[in-house]
Amino acid sequence: MAYTVLARKYRSQTFDDVKRLDVVFEMHTAEYFERDPNVKKRLVDTKEPLYMLDRHDDIPTSMKYPMDIITGLYRQYHTSSLTYLLALAYHSYCTTGKPGRVELYGIHMAAREEYQDQRPAVEYWIGLMEGAGMTVELPDGGVLLTGNGLYGLERYNPICWDMRQRMSALQMGLNDAVTAIKQKELQQARNWGAIKELDHWLLKVQRGEYSGFKRDVQEESTEAAVIESPEEQAAREKEGAL
Question: pTM score, two decimals?
Answer without folding.
Answer: 0.61
